[in-house]
Design goal:
Order of helices and strands: EEEEEEEEEEE
Mean pLDDT: 93
Low-confidence stretches: none
Number of helices: 0
Largest sheet: 9 strands, antiparallel
Number of strands: 11
Strand content: over 45%
Structural class: mainly beta
Length: 174
């Protein structure tokens, strides 16, 4: 069967403190009918796709970006999702389980600043922390298939010449 999503969202975008602070807020609900889910059955060595009759995901997002008076830019965001299986003819016992494939929460915090080196050269360091909440991988929420929360620290150092060129070194999961 085909997958059909119906989404509702309400939010606000705010610009404050003489536009040095932006704040975005959103709340949403997504109803998914016929959600396609990869399934692996190791006991018989079968990989297949199952169709979950109905999943409801509700949550919210908050994003903030602040440019300080001395050039430091701070940014971040937080998101939360409550995803629940509402109907599944393939296994009615899965109704009420967490919906697969959606992080329970996400958090991102970062900072960057440009330093003028003379002429049109700039040195731009950036650091970013990402935290991903738990996630389940199957509709049955089988023990051992839930991934625990994960935190990553990423960094980048760029040398820029205006809009002409940029050289960057970066590291993920530092």
């Amino acid at each position: 069967s085909k997958e059909v999503s119906t989404s509702y969202e309400i939010g606000a975008k705010l610009s404050l403190l003489d536009r040095s602070l932006s704040l975005n807020l959103a709340a949403f609900q997504t109803d998914i009918k016929g959600a396609q889910q990869f399934a692996f059955f190791p006991s018989v060595g079968v990989q297949t796709t199952v169709s979950i009759d109905k999943i409801r995901a509700r949550g919210f997002d908050i994003d903030v970006d602040y440019s300080t008076p001395f050039g430091l830019r701070l940014f971040g965001g937080y998101g939360y999702v409550d995803s629940t299986v509402k109907a599944f003819a393939g296994n009615p016992a899965a109704v009420g389980n967490r919906g697969p494939g959606a992080f329970k929460s996400t958090l991102m915090l970062g900072a960057t600043q440009s330093f003028d080196l003379g002429g049109d050269l700039q040195l731009v360091p950036r650091i970013q922390f990402n935290h991903y909440g738990s996630i389940v991988w199957d509709v049955d929420n089988t023990p051992g298939t839930r991934r625990k929360p994960l935190s990553l620290l990423n960094g980048r150092l760029s040398l820029k010449s205006g809009e002409r060129w940029e050289i960057s070194a970066f590291g993920d999961n530092l």
